[in-house]
Every structure is written in structure tokens, then in C-alpha cells.
């Protein structure tokens, strides 16, 4: 059995980065920018007013000073001429500051009639001007890889990019195995259950930026499993669920051997998730997840998410680990890294849920974290800081 860290390293070796495609900016949320960009414009593209008020030159500025109002600069309608030192232009937020002006008096700081303004006492002496390029200037570099969230899309839109070069979404074929399984919405026989993992893992893949496809359920025989894997070979990643252990009907290992899968590893020193398996068929990565719903999802958070991120050209790194004090004491840990379902309490403590059964999805839903106990960790006192992954 290899460690979680070793297994992840081996997974990164079979992660092939997807090619680049051009996508409309408005469809880029969650995508990964693949080619660095340089802004071809500055923002603001001209000195612009940060206030509603009057643009003037500050040479003659003092309380009681009088300025002649000679025109207006509104957003999209700049004042076209240069102003003199005793002149003012009515100006609004975001409008271009006219030539000759170097300060915008707030409208609250003047007495105004149509033709003149008089500066009040205790007026604000700030310039209230946003300089050309003060947000970003021409040549501003956008580095890659970059996950395009709301902020990044706003910035690239401001730079006038309408299309972006992004990584193709890795396609993921998800195969459930088991005679006991039917899909949600079907009518299970009394001894059947719902193939919930396929949906959970598909959702996780989608959340990470991949394009999942749920394949028909493979029955517990080699012919059926090999047939369904055969349907999936055009995918960037195949994920099988279940049949990965050592029971009579756990046939994934044999089926993938028959299929010529080049194995990277089988079995990882973790709890839950021990039967995890991975390998490669030609250019397609293959991961065999355990069938127990919590085990499958824990492996999803610990392995599938970083794997998909690597396929998107992002940094090859494990799920970020945060720290919080554990609310209770914990016994020493065995030889496998333990991912304990835990609740983040309002006081900042992590409380492991009482029952850590890897088949209990409802308990997983109550949890917000996987508290990590290292292999062979010593017994832990309450209030000791622990590492955890947010889920
Ligand atoms: P297995 O590894 O195939 O022995 O599966 C372990 C447990 O997980 C069994 O109780 C299965 O019924 C269950 N299981 C397997 N695949 C799925 C799935 N896709 N969705 C929900 N439960 C599953
Ligand atoms: Mg099974």
C-alpha cells in the first residue's frame, strides 16, 4: 500500500493537460485561462473625475474664490477645450477631466448659480481625479494559469477581451458497477439501491471544471464491465465506482488488467478509500474508486479534484489543508491516514461526527470538513490544532 502523497504524485504523472480552445468571455466563468494576456488599453483611458462637482485649476483655489462655469463634462460627453485658471467645468463621476484642470471641487463645497461657483469654507482639498491608467495601464500582464471567477472576468472585460483562450474541459466518463444498482428515478427491486455515487462524482467533476458523462451501469461480470469501459475510451478520464475491493464480485482490477490498463497503483493507506486504483489506457487516465458512498466522495476530494485541476493546467497540489482546534480528544491512529468527517462549530472548533461509517451519506452531508489524522498519529488532546480539508 502506498501513502496518499505517493498516490497523488502517481496520479499527477497520468494527468494529461487538455488542449486550448477559444471561448466567448461571457461563457468563461469557471474556466482556466491558458494563454497570458497583455492589456491593450489603460483604465481609466483618460483622467476621470471621482466626484460630482466642478473641474478647476487649483492655482487660485481658496475659500471665497470665484470660478466661471464655462461648460459641462458628462460621462461619454467630454468638454472639448482647455480651461483657464479662473474657469470651471461642471463634471460628473467617471467623466473626463478637461485639459487645464487638475482638481475636482465637490459640489457640496461650492455655492453655485448657473454661471459662477464660489468656494465655501473648509472645502475638501483632494484632487478627486483618477489618473489615466491608475486602475491598470496598457501592457498590464495577466498571468496564467488563472481560474476565471467573477473578479477575473470583470477585469478582462474592462481590458476589452471578448474571447479568451482557455483549457478544454477534461471529459470524464463515470462508470458505476454493481448488479444492485439502478439510477435515480428508476424503480429499484427490494434488494437494489440507487447508484448515488455516479451523481455525486459527476457533480464534483463539474464543480472542478470538467465535463462529466454518466455511462450505463456495468453489471458484476467481466464482460459487462469491459464493454462499458470500451464505451468510455474517448474520454480524458475514466472513473469507475465500486468493485475495487477483494470480494468475489469485485472485478474492476481484473477487468482493467484484461483491458490492458497500465496500473499506477492499487490500494492506498487511507481511511476511507483503501481500495483506490489508478492507471492509464493509452492517453486516458483511469481511476477506480471504492463503492461506499463516503469513501468515493472522500477520494473525490482528495484525489479527483487535484487530478482534474492538473488536467486543466493548474498547479499540481493536494487539496488545501486548513487548521482548527479539535473539540474532543481522539485516540491514536492506525497505519492509514484517516479522513474524519467533522463539523466546523461556530466557535471555530472542529467536531468529528460520532459515526464515521463510510456508507453514511446523511452524516457526510452534516459535515463541512475532513479532519486529517496522519498515519500512526499519537492520541490527541482536546483543543489541539488539527489539519482539515473543507468540503
Ligand atoms: P463494492 O466496492 O462494489 O463492493 O461496493 C461497496 C458498497 O458501495 C456496496 O454497498 C455497494 O452497494 C455500494 N455502491 C457501489 N457502487 C455504488 C454507487 N455507484 N452508488 C452508491 N453505492 C454504491
Ligand atoms: Mg459492487
Explain what you see.
The structure is a single chain. With 391 residues, this protein is α+β, with helices and mostly antiparallel strands. 19% of the residues lie in helices and 29% in strands. The protein is built from seven helices and 28 strands. It has a six-stranded mixed beta sheet with strand order 8-5-7-6-10-9, with no helix packed on it. It is elongated. It starts with a helix and ends with a strand. Adenosine monophosphate (AMP) binds at residues 176, 178, 180-181, 193, 195-198, 241-245, 247, 250, 290-293.
What profile does the largest beta sheet have? 6 strands, mixed
Number of helices: 7
Number of strands: 28
Overall morphology? elongated
Secondary structural class? alpha+beta
Q: How are the strands ordered across the major sheet?
A: 8-5-7-6-10-9
Cofactors, ions, other ligands? adenosine monophosphate, magnesium ion
Mean pLDDT: 97
Helix content, binned percent: 10-25%
How much strand?
25-35%
Q: How far apart are the termini?
A: 26 Å
Radius of gyration: 31 Å
Runs with pLDDT <50, length 5+? none
Task: Furnish the topology, listing elements before pairings.
Blueprint: H1 4-13, E1 20-24, E2 32-33, E3 37-38, E4 48-49, E5 53-56, E6 66-73, E7 87-91, E8 103-106, E9 110-112, E10 116-119, E11 129-130, E12 141-142, E13 146-147, H2 150-158, E14 163-167, E15 171-176, E16 181-182, E17 193-194, H3 196-207, E18 211-214, H4 222-231, E19 237-241, H5 252-258, E20 262-266, E21 270-271, E22 277-281, E23 284-289, H6 293-311, E24 322-325, E25 337-344, E26 350-352, H7 361-366, E27 369-373, E28 385-390
Parallel strand pairs: 6-7, 15-18, 15-19, 16-17, 19-23, 21-25
Antiparallel strand pairs: 1-14, 2-13, 3-12, 4-11, 5-7, 5-8, 6-10, 9-10, 20-22, 22-23, 24-28, 25-26, 25-27, 27-28
Adenosine monophosphate binds next to helix 3.
Amino acid at each position: 500500500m502506498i501513502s496518499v502523497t505517493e498516490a497523488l504524485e502517481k496520479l499527477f504523472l497520468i494527468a494529461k493537460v487538455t488542449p486550448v480552445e477559444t471561448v466567448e468571455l461571457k461563457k468563461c466563468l469557471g474556466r482556466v485561462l491558458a494563454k497570458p494576456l497583455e492589456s491593450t488599453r489603460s483604465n481609466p483611458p483618460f483622467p476621470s473625475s471621482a466626484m460630482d462637482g466642478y473641474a478647476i485649476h487649483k492655482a487660485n483655489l481658496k475659500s471665497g474664490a470665484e470660478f466661471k462655469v464655462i461648460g459641462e463634462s458628462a460621462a461619454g460627453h467630454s468638454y472639448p477645450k482647455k480651461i483657464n485658471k479662473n474657469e470651471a467645468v461642471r463634471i460628473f463621476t467617471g467623466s473626463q477631466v478637461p485639459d487645464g484642470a487638475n482638481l475636482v471641487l465637490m459640489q457640496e463645497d461650492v455655492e453655485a448659480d448657473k454661471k459662477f461657483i464660489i468656494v465655501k469654507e473648509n472645502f475638501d482639498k483632494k484632487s478627486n481625479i483618477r489618473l489615466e491608467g491608475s486602475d491598470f495601464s496598457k501592457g498590464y500582464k495577466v498571468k496564467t494559469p488563472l481560474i476565471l471567477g467573477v473578479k477575473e472576468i470583470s477585469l478582462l472585460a474592462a481590458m476589452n477581451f471578448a474571447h479568451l483562450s482557455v483549457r478544454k474541459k477534461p471529459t470524464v466518463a463515470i462508470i458505476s458497477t454493481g448488479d444492485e444498482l439502478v439510477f435515480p428515478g428508476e424503480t429499484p427491486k427490494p434488494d437494489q439501491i440507487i447508484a448515488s455515487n455516479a451523481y455525486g462524482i459527476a457533480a464534483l467533476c463539474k464543480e472542478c471544471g470538467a465535463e462529466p458523462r454518466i455511462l450505463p451501469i456495468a453489471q458484476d461480470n467481466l464482460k459487462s464491465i469491459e464493454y462499458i469501459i470500451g464505451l468510455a475510451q474517448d474520454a480524458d478520464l475514466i472513473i469507475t465506482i465500486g468493485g475495487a475491493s477483494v470480494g468475489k464480485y469485485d472485478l474492476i482490477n481484473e477487468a482493467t488488467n484484461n483491458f490492458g490498463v497500465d496500473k499506477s497503483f492499487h490500494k492506498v493507506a487511507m481511511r476511507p478509500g483503501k481500495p483506490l486504483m489508478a492507471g492509464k489506457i493509452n492517453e486516458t487516465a483511469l481511476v477506480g474508486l471504492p463503492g461506499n458512498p463516503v469513501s468515493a466522495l472522500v477520494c473525490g476530494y482528495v484525489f479527483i479534484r487535484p487530478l482534474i485541476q492538473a488536467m486543466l493546467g493548474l498547479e499540481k497540489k493536494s487539496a488545501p489543508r486548513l487548521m482548527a482546534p479539535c473539540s474532543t480528544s481522539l485516540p491514536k491512529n492506525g497505519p492509514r491516514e484517516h479522513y474524519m468527517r467533522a463539523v466546523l462549530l461556530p466557535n471555530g472548533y472542529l467536531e468529528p461526527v460520532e459515526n464515521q461509517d463510510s456508507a453514511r451519506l446523511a452524516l457526510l452531508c452534516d459535515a463541512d470538513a475532513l479532519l486529517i489524522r496522519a498515519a500512526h498519529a499519537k492520541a490527541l488532546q482536546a483543543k489541539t490544532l488539527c489539519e482539515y480539508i473543507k468540503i
